[in-house]
Please model this.
Amino acid sequence: MEPLVALTGKSLGTWSVEVFFVISGFLISASFARRPEAGAFLAARCLRLFPGLFVSLVIVGLVIGPLVTTLPLAAYLADPELPLFFLRNMTLVSPAFTLPGVFESNPFLAVVGSIWTLAHEVACYMGLLAIGLLGAFRDRRRMAVALTLFALFWVGGVLVGADLHPKVDALHKLSLPFAAGVLLYACRNSLPVTLKVAMGLWVLAFLVSATPLRVPGQIAAVSYSVFWLAYVPRGRLRAYNRLGDYSYGIYIYAFPVQGLVVWLAGPMTPAVNIAFALPVTLVLAVLSWHLVEAPALRTIRRKATVPA
Model:
């Protein structure tokens, strides 16, 4: 059961993805503003996404898969779905969420279901790159024009409604929180961040919840609240930031680990599943960051320090 659907119209998972896209819009804007070059931007994005993703797919496809598949090992390794699993998921065009004979007894057959958002994330990167190359991060008027054009695109998508292709519909929904993050970055030096404003935005979101403004109202409230949480609280809470950035590793490993827990132990409550899956996922995320993701990112940073 999803506890937030009846109250907000969206599941906890949807809220979480939107928070991720808000933060991404802000941080990717900062990345481009620091080094406004297409080559450096694309290299940084690829090195952030693909090394960690590739290693996770290898672990899922060549470690978890052979252990749990119902097929004989030779048949599993020879199945044409296996190489397509790597190819489709690394290109992001048409992700493959299942593996031959894997998790067949689970209620949900997907092995890497969460990575569906990556294609939309990359699409948002490309949109940001386009407005960046057109000077939006150097000129507030150009940024205002870019965000206005996006607003028209988003409203147009609302008017079209059910006629949108499912992938276009998903991009339409996820691009709004990403754009909110871009807007917050553009206004970072002039926007006050206070708890009163955050609470006021949630009240406003509640008041418009029965109107067509429900979605933008919710995005405004959650976006502002995310950055209040990021910048206002002090003390030991910030100590976590010094450990490393484990968010991507948690994102790519949680889904297969949770599925593996169900395969091993059978039906269970969400709380029990999380209790078993979270420690394993966190260990994998820590290893992913320190052994794969951070070293990959250091390559682009080293290149940035070498004179042309």
